[in-house]
Amino acid sequence: MSPVSFIAGIIAAIAATATLPVPQPGELHTFKDWTVGCDNGSNCEAVSLVPDEGGAGYDDWDGPISVVRTAGSDDIFKIRLLFGTKEIDRYKMFIDGQLVDTGPIVQGDYPIEIVGEDAKKVAQAISRGSRLILQGPAGENLTQISLAGSSAAFRYIDQKQNRAGTETALVAKGSRDFHPPSIEVPMIIVDQWKTATLVPDASTLVALAEGSKCKDDRYGLVEDQAYPLGQRGDRFRALVLISCGSGAYNFSSAPYIAEYRKDSPDGWTFTPAKFDRQPRWGGEGTEPLLVNAGWDDHDQTLSSFGKGRGLGDCGSAENYVWDGEMFRMIDASAMDECRGAYQWITIWRAQYRKREPTEAKAE
Length: 363
Known about the structure:
The protein has about 375 residues and is α+β, with helices and mostly antiparallel strands. About 15% of the residues lie in helices and about 35% in strands.
């Protein structure tokens, strides 16, 4: 590749990042005892809920079952169950009294994971059934799950992935050819500054908090935090999280970007952090607000995780990467129904890569 072509490619990549559209996370839909949603790449997931009326309640519930399917021709298909393993090493899965699957229980995030063609067969049985019961090797009940609404949830996935009317559909089967949706996941170019350690001191953070919107919400033990974002020339930047109220299980923070210039008489200056899409907790059109915020210094990623209630079976979560000027959403997940689904559904995803030094020189 010629130097001119190389430079032109770099400039095009940087321009593409600068003009990336505002993230539009997917919506969740609930059909009776199942919730379903897809991300911006049309990868979808359906998750079971504790029944609203009749049937198994929380006493018989030990976690949801989720059905995950990718949109591409690779067609990754998985069924996962979350529950306490109780030192049981094998399971039997029954749907309306018929044995549909059996296998080992493993230690880890997903004690049971069924993949590939086996997963498709189980999913089709789920769509036709009314009740799933999971048993141990001696016939002991581990959990039971309502299948009401599963067929509608799977039909929704068929439609979102252009599978309706094809042999690849789970529910809406037909004879036409399947053509995977042509969707490119956004690529974010991250321009990290040179590593530095300078951040505002504690007294500066207190002064910022006293003049912020959070002043009247600060009570009890509060902890403001500052993290270095790096140095470029005579400029230093830092991420500041000002404590902005708390509840029993949610702790709010207002994010600011602090900037300092060498020999500047004004010291640190602060502006509310910019996001390409605000965290759901704060809402669009307002200054951003994070919940249970987390920061990864190495990758310069910021997380917000708001629980709808203490059980953690509903709420929303977002992860962002600092691109040098603003925070850009790299993934988001949510669960709107507070009905036992600890498995939240991914509704947005993006890729990112760090800008190479040669790219900066090419400008």
